[in-house]
Amino acid sequence: MTRNATEALPIRFRFASRNDSGATDDLASTLQARLRVIVLVMVAILVAFMLLFTVRLRELSGDAYTSMQAGRFWFGVTIPPFALIAWWLRRSRPRSVARLRWVEVVLIISLCAIVVAWMAGDFPSLVPVIDKAPLDLGLSQAASMSLLIVAYGLLIPNRWQRTAWMIAFMLGAVALIDAFNLSQFQIPTSIAVTYLGAQWSFLLASTAYAVFGAYRIETATTVARDALRLGQYVLVEQLGSGGMGEVYRAEHRLLRRPCAIKLIRPEHAGNSDALRRFEREVQTTATLTHPNTIAIYDYGITDDGTFYYVMEYLPGITLEELVTRDGPMDAPRAIHVLRQIAGALQEAHSAGLTHRDIKPGNVMLGERGGIPDVAKLLDFGLVIAHNADGDSISGGTGVTTQAGMVLGTPAYMSPEQCAGDQTPGPASDLYSLGALGYFLVTGRSPFEGRAPLQMMLAHLGETQPSVRALRPELPAALDVILQRCLAKEPSERYESAREFEHAAAQVLASSQEPTSVP
Fold first, then answer.
1. N or C: which end of the chain has fewer CB within 10 A?
2. DSSP result, 388-431
3. What is the set of domains in the chain, with CATH numbers?
4. Which residues are catalytic?
């Protein structure tokens, strides 16, 4: 970013073009699903008519028998192609919009041909009675095509102009068959006018309804899609939410690179000074390059004051989800994960940043570059800047703190956080790291099963049970390093994340219990 760190210039929402990848993917998915439904309904109708004709054939003879037998034959011939199209449109195989549009055209032409053929075949039976009820017959003849027109306009996602052109083709086919029927059977002009007036009033009303419906649906879809666009990014789905805002899976509309976007609403961030501090800290966080720290790509502030930053998207599972699903980790795996997090914290602390919300839900575990169990430290949303002595340099009462608020997760907060210290230093993160390690090897936080306030009071004055009391098979050395992290006094913890990492490496490399605290 090239902006001055002290200038929080609003970044306006910029709506992506209609051809952005997110919109195209949504259109393809919707179009494929709608076409599949239409084809399946059509197959069901054709099968039903074929069975009905088969039953009726037993009661007929002569020309009626021949006519119905021919109809049954054509129904039988039509069913396999439609069934093949339905199979091609199956959900498990996403298709491109271009191919789906060709299927749409073929399908509409086929359905239009069926309706027009039925109108042409049915008209001779109407000739003897058309002079008695031309109005009713005109409406009945228009019913099938009107249904097709309305269904097309409301079900198939289109721009209203394209909908109008496709319906114009359908109306043209009806006009041709009307001209043929009326000229062949020499219907009197007055009767023809009444018949056509009723028929075309119905058709044109259906056309207006379909085109207007397509326009309203297009407008609503565009508004909904634009509401999910942020600058050059298209929001795809919400991944989670918390006290500070929401996190969305998103995609860069040009690069098609997946990413995650965190939105921090102005009511959660405090005043404009807090947003400016957020901006400075995100800029600092973006300079972190440790492989176990989530990468930040971009940030900005919208017109309504919503702060957002764009991070790498991490397919995988959080430590909280993993332990809940599979149970506590064995010691080597837990130490491997903790060392990675400690490495990420060491870089952040060296850059003057304290995370303040180390917890299982803020660490993702997944495969990166073919390497399994790669940990990524997430959510620097509560980060606070400090100097080399561990004192806050953010100013005020904390970057995201409003009066009377204590930020963090009670199960993993340090005693100083629980006591209301709004400017905790790196030692606070080491306490939370110890609580995280406790969870990894026991499946529970140090003071599990208590109300949030009771947890905070316990962090201030109670000693947590030993991990070996819960799992005797764990190495005593692991218990030692976790207990040191969980010391109530910051000065009794490890001096740095690097020191903890080295101690954890010794535990991993040696099967002997240490005689003293590493």
1. N
2. TTS-B-S-TT-TTPPTT---S-GGG--HHHHTT-SS--HHHHHH
3. 21-227 (no CATH), 231-312 (3.30.200.20), 317-509 (1.10.510.10)
4. 357
